[in-house]
């Protein structure tokens, strides 16, 4: 196979070949980055959260009665709700909360030791620590594992007029505040630490060693969320009953949604999943266009080369030689498209990384994508190549 002859043939139609190369490069860039987005999303959804997301039920509700302007009334209704919910067979624990794990934003605040406020200047994450205002039952809902000190109890519930609040913090927060020293009894700007619990996935967008949280034993009036831990296999039963139970205590409330923590996690990554689906759809369209373009390019070029092919057949070229010649042109175009496609992969990846979290391209997915494009291009060119190789020398040479 004469490589120079192939290049010369391609240069004769450089505009059409150039467009096909650009199309192949963009297709390769989209395929690789779409696979990265899809795999990243799947990995995030399957990553252990550190809590039993399948058996934690969330109720979103809003009070519609003016009586709830009285904080004492609102808190009394909330406590009655908790008692009724926990009385249901299959419920382990329930608590109100204005904060959920696995979310952007929420109720955040700054955190530092009372004697070392400047630590926030060296650790930006200490300025945005999630606060869980809830009853002590939140520890059972999340099944928190105690590392140091003790868990919160009902006697720790903070009441208006109390001077200081007892709090529990996560292990990573304790480490960044006090290092290897004990945190028990230390006073912070948010209360006195009585316990440290094992980290769980509170803020997926933050590093694994920055999963901060502060658990505060205090009921915020009209808390937007109820969190309920149920026994395995009881989720649907409790889900079907809980709205009626809550409204039986006080009907002037709007139950917005009842769902699982697993649903909450899926919704958190809904944008990533949607973007991955969009890119996959674009990939499918680009692959279809590439197939059509490769076929059309080969068919048009072959029709213009009947004279040259006829001469080669008359001079003794075999069908196999003609077939390989046509396919070799496609493989050369694919090779050029792959070269520029690697640049497109990196460019698209950098562009996406400016707007969302995405892994860097790896060699194996890139090689697989190049092979897929090569196979697609070969199949698209196969029919024109077969037709060309079947041209009898006598018919072909009539055009000379």
Task: Describe this structure as you would to a colleague.
Belongs to the ABC-4 integral membrane protein family. It is found in: Cell membrane. Residues 24-217 form the MacB-like periplasmic core domain. With 400 residues, this protein is an alpha+beta fold. The protein has three domains: 3-46 and 270-399, no CATH class; 65-96 and 220-251; 99-215, no CATH class. The chain is built from twelve helices and eleven strands. The protein has helices spanning 3-11, 14-46, 71-86, 138-141, 171-178, 235-249, 261-268, 270-304, 306-314, 319-353, 363-389, 393-396, and strands spanning 56-63, 91-97, 108-109, 129-134, 146-149, 166-170, 187-188, 191-197, 214-217, 225-230, 253-260. Strands 3, 4, 5, 6, 7, 8 and 9 form a seven-stranded mixed sheet that branches. A four-stranded antiparallel sheet has the order 2-10-1-11. A hairpin with a 2-residue loop joins β7 and β8 (191-197). α8 packs parallel to α11 (363-389). The longest helix has 35 residues, at 270-304. The radius of gyration is 32 Å and the shape is elongated. The mean pLDDT is 84.
């Amino acid at each position: 196979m004469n490589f120079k002859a192939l290049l010369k043939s391609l240069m004769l139609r450089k505009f059409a070949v150039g467009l096909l190369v650009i199309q192949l490069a963009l297709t390769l860039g989209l395929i690789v980055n779409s696979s990265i987005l899809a795999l990243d999303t799947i990995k995030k959804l399957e990553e252990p959260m550190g809590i039993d997301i399948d058996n934690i039920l969330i109720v979103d509700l809003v009070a519609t009665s003016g009586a709830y302007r009285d904080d004492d009334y609102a808190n009394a209704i909330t406590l009655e709700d908790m008692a009724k919910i926990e009385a249901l067979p299959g419920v382990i624990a329930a608590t109100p909360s204005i904060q959920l794990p696995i979310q952007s934003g929420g109720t955040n605040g700054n955190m530092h030791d009372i004697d070392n406020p400047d630590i926030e200047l060296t650790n930006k994450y200490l300025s945005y620590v999630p606060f869980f205002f809830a009853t002590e039952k939140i520890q059972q809902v999340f099944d928190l594992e105690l590392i140091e000190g003790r868990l919160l109890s009902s006697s720790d519930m903070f009441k208006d007029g109390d001077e200081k609040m007892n709090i529990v913090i996560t292990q990573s927060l304790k480490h960044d505040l006090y290092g290897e020293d004990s945190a028990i009894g230390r006073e912070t700007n948010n209360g006195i630490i009585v316990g440290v619990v094992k980290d769980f996935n509170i803020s997926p967008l933050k590093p694994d060693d920055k999963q901060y949280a502060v658990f505060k034993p205090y009921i915020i009036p009209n808390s937007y969320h109820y969190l309920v831990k149920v026994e395995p296999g009881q989720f649907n039963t409790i889900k079907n009953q809980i709205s009626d139970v809550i409204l039986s205590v006080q009907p002037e409330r709007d139950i917005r949604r009842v769902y699982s923590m697993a649903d909450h996690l899926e919704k958190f990554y809904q944008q990533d999943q949607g973007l991955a689906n969009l890119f996959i759809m674009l990939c499918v369209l680009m692959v279809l266009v590439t197939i059509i373009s490769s076929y059309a390019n080969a068919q048009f070029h072959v029709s213009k080369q009947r004279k040259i092919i006829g001469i080669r057949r008359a001079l003794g070229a075999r069908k196999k030689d003609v077939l390989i010649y046509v396919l070799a042109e496609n493989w050369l175009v694919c090779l050029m498209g792959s070269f520029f496609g690697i640049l497109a992969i990196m460019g698209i990846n950098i562009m996406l990384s400016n707007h969302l979290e995405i892994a860097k391209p790896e060699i194996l997915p890139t090689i697989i994508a190049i092979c897929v494009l090569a196979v697609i291009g070969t199949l698209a060119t196969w029919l024109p190549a077969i037709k060309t190789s079947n041209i009898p020398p006598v018919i072909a040479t009539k055009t000379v």
